[in-house]
Amino acid sequence: MDEISVPMSAAQSIDGYWSSADLLRHPPWRDRAERVRRHLDTYLDTEAERYLTTGERVLVDAERQLDPAGAVARVTGPEALVAALSGFLDPAWVMPDPADARTQLQVVEGLVRWIVGCGLVEQEGMSCYLLEVEVSLAHAADIVRERSRPDVGSESAPT
To answer: Which top-rank group of organisms is this from (predicted)?
Structure first.
């Protein structure tokens, strides 16, 4: 009997990365990483659909009838996850706390690197999406740096 390969879901990809990333289990990072994970789950449930194909949307709609929470991640694959990650770095989705936001950027960068490194997506076929994530990471890093700067105008003038 031939072995049938079942594709990995986006949820399994995220779980795989989370279990392999030592940094995310390190005590100082653990709480922030869990906040980022919840934020990513919320993003996937509310915004990722705009990055999906028509067929993926049909599957998500059917899955949401069974259990709406996590439907996108359960029925899509790593390709859809990579395609959607640039949106997770939109200014509206960059976490407000600078430490959480820096963790968010590290998670996205590490997750994409892990997915590509494990061969879960073909780098050539996903090159446009990978470039979008790279550009979004740079833009989001600028946002985080700006949020982290002390307000110059709030310093007291010498009297």
So the answer is: Bacteria
